[in-house]
Task: structure prediction
Amino acid sequence: MATNITFHPGSISASERMELLKQKGITIWLTGLSASGKSTIACALEQTLLHQGKFTYRLDGDNIRFGLNKDLGFDEDSHVENVRRIGEVAKLFCDANCFTIVAFISPYHRCRQTVRELHTKANLGFVEIFVDAPLSVAEQRDPKGLYKKARSGEIKDFTGISAPYEPPENPDIHIRTDECDVTQAVTTIIEYLASHGYL
Result:
């Protein structure tokens, strides 16, 4: 760990940045099993917010593994580091007053809590959304064929099959994607953001 470093503050305060950009940043963290609907909801939410004139960016779990996290596997330590890195990235985007949509399985409660605390300590907005689909439903959808491979043993450490998923105990928003469509899910999130002063 580097010790010969000093944080260099900028010349614009958080309140000035917010006033100039006309919005307050928030990290919108979508967690859930593979094929629960996280990425689909994230894409639709990003489109909706951008059309409302909001500075918005989406960070998708698979996409991040093509670059920043391409050196990580899917064992427990890799999952922890995967979430730690994206949590720090989301914090930076949020500090820039971006509506930052994160769609990551993020299977461990302690990791998601760490990211929440990272934002809280920096006085930044954070909302945890549990994109909930029963394993049987997610496995039936299986758009990438991953569950089939996991069941056959072709994929090791697959969340929900051979590796654990710890569902949020008290998510800010709980979306059951076997009971609603994408439009309803996005509406629920938009209503939450509006009621908490972000829209």
